[in-house]
Amino acid sequence: MSGKLVFVVGTRAQLIKVAPVMVACEQRNLPSLMLMTGQHHETMQDLIDEFGITSPQISVVQATERSTIFSLLRWAPSAYRGIKSKLRAHAAAPDTKTYVLVHGDTLSTLVASFAARRCKVGVVHLESGLTSGRLFDPFPEELFRRLVFRMTDIAMCPNAASAEYMRRRGCSMVIDTEGNTIIDAVRLAEVASVTPDAENPYLVVSLHRFQNLYEPKRLRQLVGLIERLASHLHIQFVLHPATRGRLVKEGLLDRLVSNAGITTLPRMGYRKFIRLAAGAACVLTDGGSNQEELAALGVPVIVMRSRTERPDGLGANAVLEGDLPEGVADYIISGNFKELRCTPNVLEKSGPSDRIARFFAEGGMTGNK
Question: Which CATH class is domain 3-188+349-366?
């Protein structure tokens, strides 16, 4: 094979999902490179070490925590220029086919896709074809996805429905990877032996989406919900930097810290977090990755959104906030959430990441697949 895979990673969640693909590519000796766009800094190197990634990593801008809208807007132009500069150097190499692999629905996904198109480099979109069906919900993630779909040359779709969606959009090549790469990340985290703590049950909370943080009324409602639940189950509240910043700005963090029923935790390494979630009685999250992880683990999860683009766990271990007419608090306090617990499903040996790597190893890089 003559070619190179350039993975563009900006956020922690992207790295977690891309890491198993990079590991699978390394195992097949596929030339790979990771461009780090620097949206997140905290624990990024720890994650690289945890997953054992050995491919070269190049920072296109200085890494820091960009947890506000304005910091992201300032970051985007420099990230675009940095990505384009690196891609031009690789695309200019003779007799080498280069593909840029982007993931998901973040601003770095959009910026990297646009830079790749300007450099006439093929765009491979991991986790492609997922959609909520509403252009501005969730905002801005759904909008970013739709724009990236337009620039995608090879769509790596996690299920048949998303693959069919991309085919209808006329994507040049569509691959059903038969699952999300988060399954492989959970498997690599080795959490099969973790079971819920029946004697000291706890609830994990992880909130970071724009729609939940940047509307003050909504954020205050969520804090009130957490305080009410803390009277019934101990709360392990994992604070993303953006979440902490918004709580401080709205004067809400001290209320949570002083509550004896709530433990606030910093964002942590992947294995540590996934083991915390695996041992929980239930998880409240607005993260799509968490929804997918917990579907694999069978842990009850309430997705704090009215709709989701992801089918993982729905109708089994996961329920949307918008589908609980009695409200989240009453649903949990009544114990109804216990009915959501399912048997873990993380034992499959050949996962989506290996299928993606196999596609390139068997001709994807030269367009013969």
Answer: alpha beta
